[in-house]
Structure formats: structure tokens, C-alpha cells
Design a protein that fits this description.
single chain; 5-stranded antiparallel β-sheet
């Protein structure tokens, strides 16, 4: 059902066939009227992926304490807390729980959740209400925007990997773009390699002379740049946690996931998650261009260990029953394991404290 509607939306009826970038295709599949993020229950065991806050409460505890520390050191006043793509609201609940003894901190927070998925907003509101926190104290927004003159603490976990990318590769000193050809009347959809002649695109690719394979997300860069400008103007910090790289892996990283399993990008249209590894070098460059300080960059494992997750785990294990101990240890292992999320995920913190 969604496939037909999305392809119609792309073709707009007046074309029998159309060649589009992977970026355009992904945009329609994820964020279009009938796209994945506008109708699907995407998070958790029944969804297509599960995030660190859902795996271990200690993840949210460490993030909450990290934010509280920086608020105490650098702000001690009213601020905006933005969470980009808050999932089920679990991270926010853990943050509010770990900081509940610090009334000044919680009273200073204006909370904004950036969410497009209507179903997830209802889940977030229900979970936050169950925690005995009034959802009316929270504002939900579809996109990041300025609300006042206060400084900002912005948190984004597995948010920037979902921005669409264009894929390029070099063959015999010639740049090609991997695109998608749709023949609606034949119900045909397939990949097509197209030589690049556009001068603007070639100029952009010239920045990567030593690369043979590239994924570029103009929408991700634009969004992140806007946030950096906002922090530079009003002060604060952004914490980005995502799976990504600092040194390019030398291959395409775009992937689709359907029912928790890797799938073909051209299958399950409108019903599967599509993401790619985040180029943290690009985010760092954008931060520096906006005169932000790189407070922190490391693997998720290093960040969590350096900020006391093992000490917190030991403390909680002392009062946990056997069943709880198994779940706690399993969760912490998964989000810190070198062979799992611990190394695959990176943490970047940029700041400007006015």
C-alpha cells in the first residue's frame, strides 16, 4: 500500500519513468506523506531498531549527570533542553529521574522534543505521564527552531544517521552517482549509475580528491550548521551520539533495516528504516567554522566509562535482585562492548559558554 503511494508521489503521474538520487528516494520513503517516520512504530523489539536508552537505564543516568555537571559549571540559570528524535521518551525520563533531587536544575529547564512521528509523540506523552511528569510542561516541535534567548543544551542520539545521502564513486578518473530509475507503468525500480556533469556537484566532490567512494548528506550538514549557529549566538552545547566514523571506511554505509534485519533498499518501501554512518569529521568541521569548542570526541565506550558508568553499575548492583542484576549487566555490556555499540557509536560534544 505504502509502496504504490510513495512511488506515485515521486513520479507525480506525469512521468512514465524517472531517475532520482538515492537522497530523493530516501526522503520520500522516510519523511514523505506516506513515509516510514510518519506512520511506523519504529523503536523497540517490535520496531526496526533499539536505541541505547532502551537497552540500559544507566545510559540515560550518565547523560543526565553529564548535562547536570555542565549546567552547574557553565550556566546555573534558565536554559532550553532540546532532544532531537526522543524515541519513546526514555532518555528524558531517565534524565528527569537522575536529577530529581536538583530542583534548581529541573525548574530551569524549558523542554522541547523534536519529533515528526505522531504515533511516537503519543507514546512519549503516555510514558512521561506515567513517570508523574506533566506533559503540558513540554513542547513538541516538528523541527528545531528558536523559541527564546536562553542558552541551549541539545541532545541527539541516533538522529543524524537518518538524514538522506547521495552516493558517489570514481571510476577511471570519472565521478559517477548511484541513482534510482523508476518506471512506474512497468512497476520497475532499480539502481542506475550516472556520470556527473553538473559543475556544482563536481566542485563539491573536488574537496575529496583522495576518495574513491563518497556519501554526502547536504540536508544533514545544513541542519547541523543551523544548530551550531544557534549555539554560537545564544550559548550552550550539543551532544551527538551516533554510529559513524572519523576516518572514512572506504565503502558505502547506507543500509535499510526491516523487522530488525538488514534488507534491500528497494524493498519494503515505506516500511523500513534507512540510515548511514555519520561523518563526524564533517560535524566537527562545521562546529569549528561556527567557532564552537570541541569539548569531547570519543567512542561511546570511552565516554561512558570516563563518565562513571561502571561505578554507577556497581552501586546499583548492590541493591538489585538476581533478575535485575542479569539485565543491568547485559545492558551495560552491550552499550560499552568494543565489538558492539561501544566502538561503533561515537560521541561528539561541541560548546560555547557565553
Amino acid at each position: 500500500m505504502y509502496k504504490e503511494k510513495i512511488l506515485k508521489e515521486i513520479i507525480k503521474k506525469k512521468f512514465k519513468s524517472k531517475i532520482i538520487s538515492i537522497e530523493e528516494f530516501t526522503e520520500a520513503c522516510l519523511y514523505g506523506k506516506f513515509g516510514y517516520y510518519n506512520h511506523s512504530n519504529v523503536i523497540g523489539k517490535k520496531g526496526d531498531f533499539i536505541t541505547s536508552p532502551e537497552i540500559s537505564q544507566l545510559f540515560g543516568d550518565i547523560i543526565g549527570l553529564f548535562i547536570l555537571y555542565h549546567w552547574k559549571i557553565n550556566l546555573k540559570k534558565k536554559f532550553n533542553f532540546y532532544e532531537l528524535g526522543p524515541g519513546k521518551g526514555t532518555l528524558l525520563i531517565d534524565l528527569l529521574n537522575i536529577t530529581k533531587r536538583f530542583n534548581d536544575f529541573q525548574k530551569s529547564m524549558n523542554i522541547y522534543l523534536i519529533e515528526k512521528n505522531i504515533k511516537l509523540i503519543e507514546v512519549q506523552k503516555s510514558n512521561i505521564l506515567s513517570f508523574n511528569y506533566n506533559p503540558n510542561k513540554i513542547s513538541w516541535l516538528k523541527n528545531f527552531s528558536k523559541k527564546n534567548q536562553y542558552p541551549n543544551i541539545i541532545f541527539a542520539n541516533e538522529f543524524f544517521d537518518c538524514f538522506p545521502v547521495r552516493q558517489f564513486f570514481k571510476k577511471n578518473q570519472t565521478w559517477y552517482e548511484k541513482m534510482i530509475e523508476i518506471k512506474y507503468n512497468e512497476s520497475s525500480i532499480k539502481f542506475k549509475d550516472v556520470i556527473i556533469n553538473d559543475k556544482k556537484t563536481l566542485k563539491q566532490l573536488d574537496q575529496y580528491k583522495n576518495s574513491e567512494v563518497l556519501e554526502i548528506s547536504n540536508s544533514r550538514d545544513k541542519y547541523f550548521n543551523r544548530i551550531c549557529k544557534h549555539i554560537f549566538k545564544f550559548g550552550g552545547m550539543i551532544i551527538v551520539i551516533d554510529y559513524g566514523y572519523k576516518n572514512h571506511p572506504g565503502h558505502f554505509t547506507l543500509q535499510s533495516v526491516y523487522n530488525n534485519k538488514k534488507s534491500n533498499l528497494l524493498d519494503n518501501i515505506g516500511k523500513q528504516d534507512i540510515s548511514s554512518l555519520v561523518d563526524f569529521n564533517k560535524l566537527i568541521d562545521l562546529g569549528k567554522k561556527n567557532y564552537l569548542k570541541v569539548e569531547y570526541f570519543s567512542s561511546q565506550r570511552e565516554f561512558l566509562l570516563n563518565n562513571g558508568i561502571k561505578e554507577r553499575e556497581d552501586k546499583i548492583l548492590k541493591v538489585a535482585n538476581n533478575k535485575q542484576r542479569i539485565l543491568i549487566q547485559k545492558g551495560v555490556k552491550r552499550i560499552t562492548d568494543k565489538r558492539d555499540m561501544g566502538n561503533l557509536f561515537k560521541v561528539l560534544v561541541l560548546s560555547k559558554w557565553n
